[in-house]
Amino acid sequence: MKDAWPDEARKWQRIEAVAREVLFAFGFGEIKTPVLEKTELFARSIGEATDIVEKEMYTFADRSGDSLTMRPEATAGLVRAFIESKTYAQPGPHKLFLIGPMFRHERPQKGRLRQFHQIDVEVLGDDGPQSDAELMVMLAHLLERLGLSGVQIKLNSLGCPACRPAYRMALLGFLDSRRGKLCDDCRRRLDTNPLRVLDCKVEACQEAVEGAPAMAEHLCQACQDHFNMVKQLIGGAGVDYQLDERLVRGLDYYTRTTFEAVAGDLGAQNAVAGGGRYDGLIEMLGGPAQGAIGFAFGLERLALLLPDEKDPPAPALYIAAMGEEARAWAFTTAAELRRLGLWVELTPEDKSLKAQLRRANKMNAAKVLIVGPEELKAGKAPLKDMATGEQNELALDQVVPVMAPAQ
Ligand code: HAM
After folding, report:
1. 3-class secondary structure, 314
2. Do the domain assignments include residue 194?
3. N or C: which end of the chain has fewer CB within 10 A?
4. What is the pLDDT confidence band of residue 338, given thresholds at 50, 70 and 90?
């Protein structure tokens, strides 16, 4: 878990501002749900046999003895809220996004934290391929708007309850003969979640799955038609994507379309965003049989890809004031300008002019006004433009009107 200082926080603000703009253009509304949910909600929706539920959740009993978990992801809580509020009874699709912290007790490394932040995006109450395509077009827009190049979108279909069991059998048949070559985790996965073996990062496992049957060849007609339409729509919209038969994702609720955005620069933890369709989840959690799809960005990973700011923010005016009276004048003048939204800085103590100018320089102030007893008496003071070095006398009663930001 880490602290984000202003330089880092400003990157997040930039990402969030661009994300909100793009999301609003696609008709999404922002939702906030609690960080804590009942443990059972995550166990049921993400799946008992996933890494998240087995090893990574921050779970504790509260004072009433209820088992609560700090959300490891946003989808489950959002679906819970959707069902609880009966929003499903209104005509859909319901487009929602959530920005907030998530918690997973993972082994920390570059791009992998125990408290991280997601921009989570969900379309609930719709099962048509246009929603899938819309989300991927939006994902591509957002990456483009942030100026991120070299991010690839990977796409797969995991089928549905009609066609996946047969695929699972075919895959198990293939993997069974290679059991000895698999890592301990994957040998266990053969019994619980064999599809996960396909995207295990251990080299021996990757070799063992060479030539494994592909889900794409086992899709039922309805899944095939859906997937073809998604590809046609995003291709038509100019989204650059690659098919990836190994893209399984680490949460059990997925059906049909799954996708990820990956960036080589991030090293091992290279997924900036990931998501997919989860058509069975709303019903499984007690709602009606409605389809849904979504994805989430990792804010920290996006921030790692963003270049540093060229011009960090700086004060528009620094008032260097000497002597008690001038300092009192500077204090009220700064307050007036700050009320109008201008960033004005003062030195908190009575320091030498040299020390005050040094601080103004260090903060990169655009202009410096120098006021002492003489200037107060004369009713005017020098205003220096720090970029050009140009200096003009300014009447003290003109400081606020001249410096006030244009409304
Ligand atoms: P996820 O792939 O587990 O999916 O997480 C989405 C994104 O969150 C990842 O691509 C990554 O950028 C970021 N992320 C995940 N774990 C960490 C971590 N430990 N440290 C830093 N960043 C991390 C989900 O969470 C699904 N709920 C997405 C979704 C929404 N599917 C449908 N709707």
Report:
1. coil
2. no
3. C
4. very high
3-class secondary-structure state, position 273: strand
Q: Which atom of ligand 1 is nearest to the CA of 298?
A: 12
Q: How far, in Å, from the CA of 73 to the mean position of ligand 1?
A: 7
Mean pLDDT of 372-382: 97
Instruction: Compute the radius of gyration of the chain from its Cα atoms.
Output: 28
Same domain flag for 279 and 342 = no
Question: Lowest-pLDDT range, 91-100, 261-270, 392-401?
Answer: 261-270
Per-residue confidence (pLDDT) for residue 45, from 0 to 100: 97
Q: CB of 271 closer than 6 A to ligand 1?
A: yes
Is 17 contained in some domain? yes
What is the per-residue pLDDT for 287? 98
d(CA 153, CA 296): 13
Domains in the chain: how many in total? 2
Quick check: CB of 122 below 6 Å from ligand 1?
A: yes
Same domain, 148 and 20: yes
Which residue shows structure tokens 């708007």? 145
- 59-68, 124-133, 242-251, 265-274: which has the minimum mean pLDDT? 265-274
Cα 126 vs. chain centroid, distance in angstroms?
23
DSSP-derived secondary structure letter, 178: T
Q: What are phi and psi of 103, to 5 degrees?
A: -130, 125
Same domain, 374 and 247: no
Report DSSP letters for 110-141, one per residue. TTB-SEEEEEEEEEES--SHHHHHHHHHHHHH
Choice from 12, 58, 73 to test ligand 1 binding pocket (greatest atom count within 8 A of CB): 73
Regarding whether 399 and 271 lie in a shared domain, the answer is no
Contacting residues for 162 by C-beta, under 8 A, at least 6 apart = 220, 222, 223
Q: How many CB atoms lie within 10 A of CB 213?
A: 16
The residue whose C-alpha atom lies closest to atom 8 belonging to ligand 1 is: 298
User: Which of 295, 302, 305 best tests ligand 1's pocket when mutated (most atoms within 8 Å of CB)?
Assistant: 295
3 state SS of 250: coil
The CATH number assigned to the domain holding 58 equals 3.30.930.10
* Residue that terminates a domain, selected from 305, 332, 361: 305
Residue 154 domain-assigned?
yes
CATH code of the domain in which 353 resides? 3.40.50.800
For a mutational test of ligand 1's pocket, the pick from 116, 126, 132, 153, i.e. the residue with the most ligand atoms closer than 8 A to its C-beta, is 116
Q: Say yes or no: 71 and 130 in one domain.
A: yes
Residues 348 and 286 both lie in one domain: no
